[in-house]
Design brief:
The chain is an alpha/beta fold. The chain has two domains: 85 residues, D-Maltodextrin-Binding Protein, domain 2 (3-Layer(aba) Sandwich); 90 residues, D-Maltodextrin-Binding Protein, domain 2 (3-Layer(aba) Sandwich), CATH 3.40.190. The protein is built from six helices and ten strands; from the N terminus they run βαβαβαβββαβαβαββ. Strand 1, helix 1 and strand 2 form a beta-alpha-beta unit. The longest helix is centred in the middle third of the chain and has 12 residues.
Length: 192
């Protein structure tokens, strides 16, 4: 019997619905979406039949941190949500509304949601540092927009869904870093 690991995060409730729609038989365990890749990886190491369903962003973040992992994407399901301003959750660089990145100083404090530390690090290295920006990175577990609002950060890297919290903080999207679909993950031998 296959165990399905699904997120208990409210923003990822669609993953649980996918298991029901696909009429997949097996035991369902709910844990935080960002922990699913590690949980599935460890269970597959113990030769357990397990599949995880989570956001592609969270899977890619895990793979960047765990290059020797035997996890793979077994199935990709397009995330299509009219409530998302980009149709799906998108990791974005956010900055002050009505300004352009080129108008900001070269020494920047950038607040990054720690769930996306590796994806953000790659982006900062490739995009911002190549433009001669000096970055002080501030990693937090949430409230990235508040760090901007209170003047602690000049830029933010976080997931944008509806864009409501960014708008409330007087932020706008400067760049899209990564758009996330839903992925079914498992060990190299597991199939959907």
């Amino acid at each position: 019997m296959v165990t399905f690991i699904v997120p208990k995060n409210s923003g990822l409730k669609i993953c649980k619905e996918i298991v029901k729609k696909l009429n997949l038989k097996g035991k369902i365990i709910e844990i935080r979406g960002e922990d699913i890749p590690l949980f599935v990886d460890r269970l597959t190491e113990k030769n357990k039949a397990v599949l995880g369903i989570t956001g592609e962003d969270l899977f890619n973040e895990f793979i960047l941190k765990n290059k020797s992992s035997n996890l793979k994407i077994n199935k990709k399901i397009l995330w299509q949500d009219k409530e998302c301003i980009f149709g799906k959750p998108t990791l974005c660089l956010l900055g002050p509304k009505n300004k352009k990145l080129g108008e900001l100083k070269k020494n920047l404090r950038i607040c990054i949601n720690s769930k996306y530390k590796e994806l953000a690090k790659r982006y900062c290295l490739k995009f911002l540092k190549n433009r001669d920006y000096l970055l002080e990175k501030i990693y937090v577990s949430g409230a990235t927009e508040d760090f901007f609002s209170k003047g602690i950060a000049d830029l933010v890297i976080d997931i944008v869904y509806s864009g409501k919290s960014a708008k409330e903080a007087n932020l706008e999207v400067y760049d899209r870093i990564f758009s996330s679909d839903i992925v079914v993950i498992g060990g190299k031998n597991e199939k959907v």
